[in-house]
Amino acid sequence: MDVVSLANKYLAHNSKRFRVFDGLSRVNRQFRTVAIVFLRRNIVLENVEELLPIQNFLYWDWEADDVIEEYPDEFDRKKRACLVRTIQIGRVKYPWYNHKSYLNHRSYTTVWGDPQPYQELRSFESYHAACELPVLESFAHCPHFHNLVTAWDDTYPFPDACHGLRKLETLRLYLTDPGVYPVWSRVHETRGVASFKTITTLALHSAIDFSYVIEQCLDNLSFPELRVLRLERITNEVAKVYDFIQRHPTILEATVHFIVHRETELRMEALLRLIEGTGTWVAREPSEEEGLDEATEFNIVDLNSPIPPDFPLVCGSFARFSFARRPLGPASVEYKSYKGSPTPRYECTALAAYFAEEGDEEKEFNSVLDVVDYLEPCFLTMKELRIASRAPGLTPHDDFVEFMDCLSCSLTKWKVLQRFSLHTPLSWPQWEWTGPYTEWHPGRTVPFLDIVSPPAFTTPGKPRTLAQLCTAYSDAEVKRITDAIRFALCLDDDVPLDEDDPELLMQAWEAHNNTLVARLVRQLASVNPQLEEFDWYVLDDPSGDTVLWHWKIYRQDDGAVSRVLGHLAWTGCGRGDPPPFPVYVGQESDCALRDAGGVYS
């Protein structure tokens, strides 16, 4: 059992997939022989300092020689390392990559040892430290290696470090070092464009301003088989990013998050052209036969213009988007030109965007309802839509019920929508309008329970409690509040309420309003025949405080809604923290929610 304890200290036995093997390894010797084989396939380390002990355990000298002699087949030193399939060092928690905690662990040297024993390694993820060249080169000896995720500094040039990985499919780099210029120096020495023919997923996460790195990647590297692109927290020119996507017709999913400033405000009309493949974003030097007429024909636009002249409408500005698209035919992904095609080559299946607080033009709108209405004729094949806005006061409706009625009317036209997420400012004080004299008849409402804004936080990160409410209201109002809480939670009058419970008010708020919101979600699902999930982000604060009301829709065989089931989660609640509003779709959405480590992990 000492052997099992030592192994489980470093192996990924906490994963649900491997708990059964952990249990089997403790039953008897026969089960242990089989179970340890599976336990050793996935190694998860908290930090890079644990790498050397696990190396010793897997390959180098090991102190339990007597056990090895007793079970030579099970503990053969070479076989131990050959069992390893994946190695993960550290973890990055969604949504932000905080590089400060990594400054003391920027690189590690040759503790990796002889690469030969790890011939079955498929994946290596190092969030805790940057890989040095000997480590990266060792992966070339692993014939099945296809996934590399690592922190990156300025030690080695990117192309040289990865060209030897002949089957690399996923490359995810967390850029951590401000002294980054030498990283790409070797790119400038190459003639033409360096090509990575096997990479299908490329993700660059920037903790600080790495515009130079991103620009070199966009201009000097080519990925003929790229399917998924993710650029996180970048400050590069919008036109160059769009041009990179246009020149890679194989890209079917793209997630781009610009750091917000005036120069990178994006237009929805331009994004539609990017998704369809009809936009041209960088004007090359025209040939003798090519002039302004052709430039106009191929929709070359100035993205820095607030209102591009050839766009009939203006739909809000944003700095973060994610989309998934489907080619209309085989020729769509074989299109080889920086110019947009005259007709659409793709149809959008998923879209996420987070709109800015306000716009410059009177015709500009950021309202969730306006965006939904605008997009409806463009994307008849949309299966997933995530729209959020921080713009205050842009929904001219008296209450939440009226807003949901209008939303239901808008979504009636979306026949294939399956998942819908929204966040919009709470500009309605009431759930349902009860007349102009409500404020003179306070007995009609219960403070905090009868308003749309949830009683979640006093200040960022500080939960609101009943004790705090009692100091702000009269005795009569406190009595109404406590009676309403007991009624909502089905508690007897003699049951004491824990005034310091940080979850009491939110639990009561959910129970008090659940029937009304469930009715409105059912109405939404009734007019949308394929809707399966509805996420209402009641609160999505930049400070990190989030309140999410997640609804699941269940249907009968004929498609009719049988029931809707919702649960409320907020930052700091016992159910687990909900992720902030996800401006992700497709593969990167799954990746982000996995890293969130909360209610959806």
Describe the 3D structure.
The protein has helices at 2-10, 19-24, 29-39, 51-58, 65-70, 77-82, 133-138, 158-162, 185-189, 211-220, 238-246, 268-276, 292-297, 368-375, 400-411, 466-470, 475-488, 504-527, 586-596; strands at residues 42-45, 86-89, 123-130, 147-152, 170-175, 194-195, 201-206, 221-222, 228-234, 253-258, 266-267, 317-327, 346-355, 384-389, 419-423, 533-540, 546-555, 561-570. The protein has 601 residues and is of the alpha/beta class. The protein has a domain at 367-601. It has a 16-stranded mixed sheet that branches. The protein has a two-stranded parallel sheet with strand order 6-8. Strand 13 (346-355), helix 14 and strand 14 form a beta-alpha-beta unit. Helix 15 runs parallel beside helix 18 (504-527) and helix 17 crosses helix 18 (504-527). It is globular and about 75 Å long. The model is unreliable at 1-18, 60-71, 97-111, 178-192, 285-313, 359-364 and 436-442 (pLDDT under 50).
